[in-house]
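ok trying this again, last paste got cut off
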Amino acid sequence: MQTKEKLLKEIEELIAYGKEEPVINPSLLAYLEIQELEHIRQRLLKKVNELSNEDKVWLERFRKEN
């Protein structure tokens, strides 16, 4: 199990994915329990992975055929 501080930092980075700054105040997350933070992290990781896959599909459209 991760420490709360590590989870908060990772969640903050995931929230800021593709943006200059977080869209939510990370200090608000400090009031949540570790289990809640782990769940949030898992959902954010899934979302970031889906976005990455969508980006790959989009970029494939521009790939030159050999």
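PB: full thing came through this time. The radius of gyration is 15 Å.
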